[in-house]
Request: fold
Amino acid sequence: MNTQTDHTLSGAPNGGWGWVIVAAVALINMFNASITSVFGLLFGEQLEIISHGTSTPALLANLNSLALNFSGLFIGPAIKSFAPRKVTSFGIILISLGLALCGFATEVWQFALGYGLMVGIGLGLISPSTFMIINSYFTTKKARAVGITLAGTGIGQIIIPHIVRVLLENYGYQHAVFGVSLLSLVGLFGASFFSPLKSSPITSNPNDNKEVKTLLTAPIEEPNKTVLSQRPQTKQENSTFWGKVFNYVIKAMDLELLKDYAFWSIIVGMGLVYTATINFSMLFPYFLQNSVHLNKSDTALCMSMVASADLISRLLLPFATEKLQVPSRVVFLFGTIGLLISRAALAETTDITSLLVLSALTGITKSATVLNNNLAISEYVRPEKLAGGLGLNMITKAILVISVGSFLGWIRDFTESYILCLHVQNIFLGLVIVVWTPEILNKMWRRNGKGVLDSAV
Reply:
């Protein structure tokens, strides 16, 4: 199965109204995608009161991450059946309602429903649908556009904690939660600017809903034995109700992509890097305080260095990769190599100056993987299958967070060593590098034999 293509969407302006949409998506990310960064600040004290334990915040954060990524099960069909503006708007409303529910919550299960499921699913709907609208407006400047939208998340992670702090200090917990809930609705203003190009493959197909109705209402006729004897066995299975359901699910979720080994390699590799990054983000402050023995001020300084370098790199890195015309998967690979080097060095470093330098390198290389996650998939699959490809990527992340993420947590609990856990994370990064490097090298010299990188690597 060949899903590679050097597709260019006809009519994509690489500017004009597209930059308005970029600003709109950045606004959406600023007040929605950044919500997870204030989870502890906003809900920590209330959860401590009602749960009387330290495991509840971790449980809710993991549930939120799983709901976010498992929403990939239906994101493909949703984007195909509805415009990205509707999917994005519904996700924003879910986030706002989920946060509002947490404002009334007096039991852990209410937080699980509000923050874990509703906010998680809402975030899961926003990320791929906003990328789809960006993808329809940009080709040569796509990385630059995505970088700006993701910088919106970084800016939100800087300003939202201060807003939350002011609300908590002056108005109390419940009003602070309601305030953040209302702020998330600012994203609806951004979504109102979404206007898909007529030639875009993400526009709703009027036949999709008809196909669903036909599937559910059409009578199942008895197959003609004489005719069946002249057709493959598969035809008989597809003529049944469940055969139609099976075929519809395959088509709606673009499951035929899973026949492609290279696609598997991409989504599993990205999922492993994502899982290692999530685990690193949770362990990093504990590593700095318990293994390196930094005080809280220096710990915060190192964490700020990671975030600042990540934000700046999200804005500047796309200009370099576009100028050099480096494929997104190659940039992702270089970012993974950089993450392995910086984290391996961090694990063995105690000098504060070296820690700050390595923290900055970690932020820069992290941005290379975050920026090019969806971009690499968009370069590999055909436009009409992009929504399904993004959904399958999200599902893979969820599965790996459950399996590999749990294993990394067990390593930490069993050994009680943050240093060892950082090195084990790097084993998974190294696995991705070992598998991807030969694949990419085999394709680097394909185009005209002139050493020009294949844009679909």
